[in-house]
Amino acid sequence: MVNHPFVPQSLIGRQTELQQIAEIFLRDGDLLIAGVPGSGRRTLIRWAAQQVKARVLEIDCMRATDSQRFLQILAESLMAAFNSPQEQGIIQDWITQYPLNLEPGIHGRARLVWHLATEGEWSLFQTLLSLPQVMAEALDCRVVIVFQNFPHLRSWDRSGNWEAYLRQEIQRQSRVSYALIAMVAESWVQDSSLQVISLSPLRNQDLFPWFVKVMETEGLRFDPEGKALGLFLSYVQGHVGDAIALARRIWLDCRVLSSLKDLGKEGIIQSHHVHRSALALVEDLAQTFESLIFLLPPSQVRVLESLALDPTDSPHSKEYIQKHHLSRGGSLQGALASLEQKGLVYGSQYSYRITLPLLAFWLRYRLT
Predict the structure, then answer these.
(1) Residues sharing a CB contact under 8 Å with residue 306, sequence separation 6 or more, in sequence order
(2) Is residue 105 a contact partner of residue 111, using CB atoms and an 8 Å limit?
(3) Which tens digit of pLDDT belongs to each residue from 230-262?
(4) CB-CB contact of 352 with 346 (8 Å)
(5) What is the pLDDT of residue 267?
(6) C-alpha dihedral, 280 to 281 to 283 to 285, nearest 10°
(7) For 327-349, what is the mean pLDDT?
(8) Which of 68, 72, 203, 362 sits a CA distance of 20 to 30 A from 286?
(9) CA 143, CA 178: separation in Å to the nearest integer?
(10) Which pLDDT value is given to residue 226?
(11) Where does residue 118 rank: exposed (0-12), middle (13-18), buried (19+ CB within 10 A)?
(12) 292 vs 276: CA distance, rounded Å
């Protein structure tokens, strides 16, 4: 595998949001960070937690297919965050009053184990969720619990009891900050103490200094009179994940061109290099994109195709509907709302367009 330098070693933009989140953690507050996949939500939380020297537990609710699996993920996260001999000693003393054991695991990391019937899972859930507060007090430290894909709990928590208890703990625990990662803020958040941080696409002036610098590090640069840099920025549209993917592809392609003596001695990236790399990248991603499209209802696919060809401020206008042969009324509004919830489309706040620029590029390429 070829190593590449395009995973950022420092935060790209987002300094204002970083400061906001760090301040929330400093006062043991809680937050929901809303943004599309690839916008840097987890990176921001990790950097903010590092700033305030907080321990971080990361729990991806998408991996929890039932209550038992959720408890396993929670226990694994606890042991990953508190893994020193001193910390495990505190945990060992604490669990003596509960039906839990600490056993050696793989790679020398201890693991929490239990043997309970299904009816005992609720009590175990409450017990495990109280442990971060216990550790924060014992170690006099801050703890941040990160929940990704929080709404996915409802796929198995049909009664809503587990989600309701988590919301209660968010309000109650004083030494633990909760950070929920979501596409958009749900309505219940407005009635809670959670602060909402919404991530917009990065501005070009935040993104291009990183791109230029990392390319220069690899001996590549842009013709100051050319359009290659502008073309790159237009392809990624402020999306950090797509910017990293395309930058890496350009770099790899330029390595090949250099070996073939086709790049030139000065290593100048031209527009056609950027365009060719973008085409190659979306061709590599085509199977992933096709699988995504296959899972969507036809009405949502039609909306995505329309926005790929023609982003708009007014998808509900008569002219736009007629131009792209869309359904009127609730069907269109439902498709837009569902696509926004899935993180595939920006709503009116950022104009209606596809959130994943490379997906939009692939759709345009396929349709034209």
Answers:
(1) 315, 320, 324, 326
(2) yes
(3) 999 999 999 999 999 999 999 888 877 665 455
(4) yes
(5) 76
(6) 170
(7) 88
(8) 203
(9) 9
(10) 80
(11) exposed
(12) 24
Angstrom distance (rounded) from CA 198 to CA 144 = 19
Q: Note the pLDDT of residue 260.
A: 46
What's the token pair of residue 257? 């061109």
The answer on pLDDT for 144 being more than 70 is yes
pLDDT-above-70 percentage for the chain: 95
97 or 2: whose pLDDT is higher?
97
Cα–Cα distances (Å) from 223 to 9, 212, 264, 267, 269, in that order, read 26, 11, 12, 10, 7
pLDDT number for residue 259: 59
Neighbours of 25 (CB within 10 A): 23
User: According to the model, what pLDDT value does residue 243 have?
Assistant: 93
Place of tokens 């971060």: 132
Nearest by Cα to 276 from 258, 292, 252:
252
Q: In the predicted model, what is the mean pLDDT of the chain?
A: 89
> Alpha helix locations (H) across the chain?
15-26, 41-51, 67-81, 85-94, 121-139, 161-172, 204-217, 228-236, 240-259, 271-294, 298-309, 318-324, 330-341, 357-367
Amino acid at position 363, single letter: L
Question: What is the chain's Cα-based Rg?
Answer: 24
Torsions phi, psi for 226 (to 5 deg): -90, -175
Packed helices 357-367 and 240-259: angle between N→C axes, nearest 10 degrees: 70
DSSP state of 352: B
Mean pLDDT of 298-318: 94
Inter-CA distances, 290 with 105, 301, 304, 308, 359, Å: 40, 11, 13, 15, 10
Contact between 82 and 109 (Cβ < 8 Å): no
Long-range contacts of 305-309 (CB under 8 A, 24+ apart): 305/363, 305/367, 307/345, 307/352, 307/353, 307/354, 307/360, 308/354, 308/359, 308/360, 308/363, 308/364, 308/367, 309/363, 309/364, 309/367, 309/368
CB neighbours of residue 264 within 10 Å: 11
